[in-house]
Amino acid sequence: MTIIDQLLRPRRVAIIGASVDQSKLTGRPLAYLRKYGFTGEIYPVNPRYDAIDSIRCYPDIHTLPQPPDVAIVLLGGDKVVDTVRQLADLGTAAAIILASGFGEGGVEGKARQDALRSAAGNMRILGPNTIGLVNVTERIVLSASNALVTDELVAGSIALVSQSGGILGSLLSRADAAGIGFSKLIATGNECDLEVSDFIDYLVDDPATRLIALYLEGLRNPKAFRATVFRARAAGKPIVVFKVGRSEAGARSVVSHTGALAGSDAAYDALFRQFGVLRAERFSDLLDIPIALTTAPPLTGRRIAIVTSTGGAASLLADAMGRIGLEAPPPDEETATKLKSLAIDGATLDRNPIDVTLAGVRSDIFATILDILIASPSYDAIAVVLGSSALRDPEIVSDPLRACAAKSRKPIIGFTSPHAPQLVRRLNQTGVPTYADPESCAVALSALLQTTKRGLPHCDIPAVSENCSDVSVFRTLLRPGTLNEAESKRLFAHFNIPTTSEVEAATPAEAETAAKSFFGPVVVKALSRHITHKSEAGGVAVNVRPEDVSRVCAQMTDRFVAITGWKPEGFLIQELVTDGIEMILGCRYDPQLGPLILLGMGGVGAELYRDTTLRLAPVDANEARAMIDELKVAALLKGFRGRPPADIESLVAAVVAFSTMAAVIGHDLQEAEVNPLFVRPAGQGVIAADGVAIVNASTL
Amino acid sequence: MTIIDQLLRPRRVAIIGASVDQSKLTGRPLAYLRKYGFTGEIYPVNPRYDAIDSIRCYPDIHTLPQPPDVAIVLLGGDKVVDTVRQLADLGTAAAIILASGFGEGGVEGKARQDALRSAAGNMRILGPNTIGLVNVTERIVLSASNALVTDELVAGSIALVSQSGGILGSLLSRADAAGIGFSKLIATGNECDLEVSDFIDYLVDDPATRLIALYLEGLRNPKAFRATVFRARAAGKPIVVFKVGRSEAGARSVVSHTGALAGSDAAYDALFRQFGVLRAERFSDLLDIPIALTTAPPLTGRRIAIVTSTGGAASLLADAMGRIGLEAPPPDEETATKLKSLAIDGATLDRNPIDVTLAGVRSDIFATILDILIASPSYDAIAVVLGSSALRDPEIVSDPLRACAAKSRKPIIGFTSPHAPQLVRRLNQTGVPTYADPESCAVALSALLQTTKRGLPHCDIPAVSENCSDVSVFRTLLRPGTLNEAESKRLFAHFNIPTTSEVEAATPAEAETAAKSFFGPVVVKALSRHITHKSEAGGVAVNVRPEDVSRVCAQMTDRFVAITGWKPEGFLIQELVTDGIEMILGCRYDPQLGPLILLGMGGVGAELYRDTTLRLAPVDANEARAMIDELKVAALLKGFRGRPPADIESLVAAVVAFSTMAAVIGHDLQEAEVNPLFVRPAGQGVIAADGVAIVNASTL
């Protein structure tokens, strides 16, 4: 029995600081356990009572008859550490700590959280600053959430793991109103011990759970997250995440709230994309997407039939769907003929939206139309508009909808045009995902399509074996601090990134001699470990005739010194590369998520248009291709307006090589960048024309 | 008394085809007039009854005692035209036609709509295919909308004009649930006569209306729309529009629905932006934005204080706000000190979000905090999170919110974290804009800021006086069809757009002679009225020495003929321009909205990144500057990473000149484009290096 099993299905629950007053937070856990029929033993602990709700109450932890599986600690900050120590000594398996004022409360709080962790010994902790958890499947509530007072506990197949107890309550309340049930509800709070990944790992194997919804503020163990998300994908359980921190204001509020490390949101986004985690853009998507993914069959294409009795609402739906790449094509001839045979006065049946008008709002008509559309080769899914007529007689439309959805292998969803929360609830409860916003319908269908289209993850977590590169060799290249261009490119070349032919020279005279070994004009650069923007410092001269190199070097030195105050360490004489599309290839070590790699259009494309994409390193060739496809510059690489296609396969190889370098070196490589990386016409390869690497000084 | 006045405040209303059965559409108008206490005369017309609801019923139109101000025609398609003729003959001021099957019903329907229009003579028509209108201010309902059966008619200051009756009903129902009232509700349907602009024009002067919300499918009279929107802005009445047709699927569904011309959505977007119409992105925004704009005071900056009792929900809010450019900065020292003096246990009061925790959920604490924040120089608005505690005792938070909002000169808005529709309704009703989605809070605040920041429209509708250019001269330049580069640039030059120095030559020999008058190498181009993409056809040679020109021209001719099958009409010898930022400047005559101009980054910037912006022509210098500022390439023009700033003022002048050309020529200029337009360093001007114009053949 795993610890999460014990937490979700305890036989003995102690409630430390339980109160008789059910209106108080301290009164709720016991009341909830009783209300939902907990069949195990309950040990309330409070010296002020002999019994609570006819259950024997214990004066302290030492008097408990047996070590509990789970202890819910309702005491305030001061007493928590001592209580935890006592519980641990008794052999309690896990404690749920509600108190706040720990990791989220500045330096002092963090120290208290460390003390808590150490007092727990082998006992596991959920929290602190958690509202607890609920095993909805088996109706076991170990929570003090306010939301459970008013709302029903409806079992469903969505598991929710939230780093905020308030958000858990908010989602429970919203889901209840929409007729959606959960399998498990878990608030992880400050995660001083158990954290989101522990629960995801459990939920992947939980037969009652078909989808995992996450509210995230930041990951404390990204490695575990990656591993567990990978397992979830392999098990076919989608993960939908709403993560805050996409803006500075949001990130700051999170830090202030639970002390979670905010990290770079762009890096999180890369992580989610790479590992197939669906990111909810709006808060409401965190319920809207799961509703569809847990009830509708797979969506295998983009063609949506819209059935309506009211034209305007159908236009809203068609427009919202079209905006995110779904289509609402007219029916094929056979389907159109079948639809037209219904011959409803004033209806437009052979087009899409299929408008039955008020005259067609009849159960038999809807059922027939749905049957025709389910059988039609023209459509992959059906969206039905529920107009104001559906408010008066909900069963007219909802009955055929439910019946057809139950037998359809295509998704069927509903959209309520007027305010109709009861209808939304009713339809969701009967297995027809139904939404009040046209945009939510589109988002839900799009999520269905994404989930269907992906196969198994194409990005494994490759074990970067140390022998993929000779450690003893590249270690010598990792001089702490900023490497100059020649040093950086030697490092890149070691990892098989093609670089320009170049020769280092210590003096202008040496440089000229070197230049004469090139065919034709060369590029002259000042080498510097101090100045990375060489061009701005006058440290680059392009198209220099070999016989001019000595003079150019001398002038360059003067200007470089004048502008930067640094003397160049030497000169780099380089072949002149002019053809090819300029890309940028970079990596950065994210303190939270590890090495990231960036690919983008070079020059203005990166700077003005942010045409870049991120991944966690390393990536394989498939993932590198996916990165390229995400860029707008992909059109240019593939041969744009009659231009020759570029050497995409060599670019893929360079991305893989660069990401391998980032992964192998790890934390020691603070950041590195090839800019520009010229991607030449197909068959002619890529070439790193300039670059820089920064090695962490601390580690060597 | 205007016709709209008569429609909204009639004294005598005839109901043609009235029924005694109130459950039927034909029974509703009379029932509604009675229910809401209409004090004028009602003339039901139906040969089957002597009276309906104790009101005398007339057998036909001829027997009516007096011409009605308004006749609601409830008859079906066949009888409508004849009825309209009879009503017109009687001297009826206006008829509201509910029947469908007109303009939206294909060729046959369009013919019927024409017949309807002609039968009406001087009588005005609302519809056909309309659900009618409601003067909520004075409780006069001339509608058969289903939505009025169940929902309350709450008076407010938002006027809604909708081209769809179903959408009007949907919004009425949603607004009612959210506690929002309207001043006027008007469904314009097919607009065979009266259309949206007629109503906007009236509403600008309606004292009960503070804001106009529009549901648009397409404009039938864009000129009138521009004029009336301009009036609304001058009157300080915001217009918020939700327009469908942003995707192909949406546009097609609209055409099928009401036969509205879809037009180019990008052109509509330009129109809205140019004339300060706020565009609702999501359907729900069409209510959410008006709620804030009609109740909250102006927002004068981006700094939002967030007050909460639950951390997670505050993060949602901060994050959503940050994503659209709002800020949640910490308080200044004095404000922080005041907040901290409240000394609530466990609360974080000196930061933002200001988290009072559950311990601080007290009316007096909220009132004090709101007072401190209203007085604080750190904030421009306040957003308050309503957590689950607010559900149990709504008045604890809502009372101080209402009281403070009433006296505050800063906007105060609410966000309900749990599902709390009653609380949303209650707060909206008491003047505190309150939302259930964090993103809606952000959108509402952003709309407030946009409305506050803009002054009077900076884009007037300039009367393009014909004397701004000599008509007789440029008319001769407008040869029907595609103009070749030389012809196009003569046209552009006539409108004061600087072009490259160039000489036309009929033969290679002439070309060489011409080239020798240039200093240094030239550009040689093949002139063709048939081929616009000269480069792909081998029709451009750059950097040609004058002595090579004859040979280059001969070779060019051969290649050009081989590739295109067309012989060049001659050659263009052109100065070589290489410096400057490449822009694109174009215009296109939109059949719906008239001449549009486009400005964007040239080359890859336009093709890959769509870094372009549109306006209706003509634009003035301010609007041209606004266009430039919308582009990402603006950063480059302004001097990027130490590059010299470009000659933006000359670019502004060129945009104004080009737009004047588009406006003056109007429909005759189908499209034109300068590409590239080189924008040189400041003081050195702009220069059109290539271009094309297409003149409508039909008009000359």
Entry keywords:
homodimer; 700 residues; alpha/beta; 7-stranded mixed sheet; 26 helices; 30 strands; 38% helix; flat
Helices and strands, with pairings:
The structure is a homodimer of 700-residue chains.
Chain A: H1 3-8, E1 12-16, H2 28-35, E2 41-45, E3 51-52, E4 55-56, E5 70-73, H3 77-90, E6 94-97, H4 106-120, E7 124-126, E8 132-135, E9 140-143, H5 147-150, E10 155-162, H6 165-178, E11 182-187, H7 196-204, E12 211-216, H8 222-234, E13 239-243, H9 248-258, H10 265-274, E14 278-279, H11 285-295, E15 304-308, H12 311-323, H13 333-340, E16 354-355, H14 363-375, E17 381-386, H15 389-392, H16 394-407, E18 412-416, H17 421-429, E19 434-435, H18 438-453, H19 471-477, E20 481-483, H20 485-494, E21 502-505, H21 508-515, E22 522-527, E23 540-544, H22 549-564, E24 570-575, E25 581-590, E26 594-601, H23 604-607, E27 612-616, H24 621-630, H25 634-637, H26 648-665, E28 669-679, E29 686-688, E30 691-695
Parallel strand pairs in A: 1-2, 1-5, 5-6, 6-7, 10-11, 10-12, 12-13, 13-14, 15-16, 15-17, 17-18, 18-19
Antiparallel strand pairs in A: 3-4, 8-9, 8-11, 20-30, 21-24, 22-23, 22-24, 25-26, 25-28, 26-27, 28-29, 28-30
How does this structure look, described?
The structure is a homodimer of 700-residue chains. The first copy, chain A, has 700 residues and is an alpha/beta fold. Chain A has 26 helices and 30 strands. At the A-B interface, helix 5, helix 6, helix 9, helix 12 and helix 15 of A face helix 5, helix 6, helix 9, helix 12 and helix 15 of B.
